Amino acid sequence: MPPANLNALRVFSTVAEHGNIQCAAEVLNLSRGAVSQRIKQIELEIGTPLLVRGARGVSLTPAGKRCHAAMTEALAIIDSALSDVAGHDGWITLHIGPSFMAKWMMPRMERFRKAFPWVSLATEIHNRVMDRGLGRGEIAIWPDTAPDPNPAHQSRHLTELRLAAVCSPDFLRPDWPMGPETLLTLPLLQDGHRRWDRLAEATGQRPAHAPLNFGRSALALDAAMNGHGVAIAPHHMIEADLRAKRLVEIWFPPEPSNEGLYMSWAKEQNGGRHLRRVVDWFLVEFGQGHRRQE
């Protein structure tokens, strides 16, 4: 069997990561037809289907999963070697969610740049947890119920997801301590985690108003700051707005969320001079560890 074309394999890896041929085509700046043709080329060369095509996207066959895992590892090694040759040790790519970027990272961006003036930082925004391996100079931060299971990754727990209900200081609300029953009578602002729906289900009480639904936590929090209702979000996402008095906390769930925020990076890429310092910076920002001395 002739070896598969490396460019075609990169196309397959991008499709597998996004779960959608059109999204992969936009990322790769190719036509949808060109992406489909490269996938078919690989499937013909190896003699087995890699993707199951559906109305809402594509999923990996068992062979596709094995191929994607192997490609992820191989591409990480190639990218690492090319970075070494090109002298790109100062490049760091941060894989994060859009609301984490808006509400946690942006308020700290100046501090980060002062700490690492020699680092070229790139951010890649993801709407779901990455399912590929991390290469040289890549860090991923994502909420989950357990550490990153990828054996090729280092993983550290950053913080528990301590939730709080928040609103604008000017939002009209009862001035006494509130429980869930009172909260559910107020205008509710809900993100994709559907936490208000889950609270209503747990208490058996219908909200007095249908929640306003937003695709991202940052949008629900912005609506809360503008006086449109009450949002619920992890504390690390609201601390900057609490300090600036743009939001106030009015309720805390009595039970822990059983979720945490985790940071991952590739075990084999620790040779990068700056990666470990950036990892340490995040740990310190979340109250762990000490600044590494230069």
Write up this protein:
By secondary structure, this protein is of the alpha/beta class. It folds into three domains: 80 residues, Orthogonal Bundle (Arc Repressor Mutant, subunit A); 98 residues, 3-Layer(aba) Sandwich (D-Maltodextrin-Binding Protein, domain 2); 89 residues, Periplasmic binding protein-like II (D-Maltodextrin-Binding Protein, domain 2). It contains eleven helices and twelve strands. The strands form three sheets. It has a five-stranded mixed sheet. β1 and β2 form a beta hairpin. α1 packs across α3. The radius of gyration is 22 Å and the shape is globular.
Could you outline the blueprint of secondary structure elements for this entry?
Layout: H1 6-18, H2 21-28, H3 32-46, E1 51-54, E2 57-60, H4 62-86, E3 91-96, H5 98-105, H6 109-115, E4 120-125, E5 138-144, E6 153-160, E7 163-167, H7 180-183, E8 188-190, H8 195-203, E9 212-213, H9 217-225, E10 230-234, H10 235-243, E11 248-251, E12 260-266, H11 275-285
Parallel strand pairs: 3-4, 3-5, 8-9, 8-10
Antiparallel strand pairs: 1-2, 5-12, 6-12, 7-10, 7-11
Descriptive keywords:
12 strands, D-Maltodextrin-Binding Protein, domain 2, 11 helices, five-stranded mixed β-sheet, 294 residues, alpha/beta
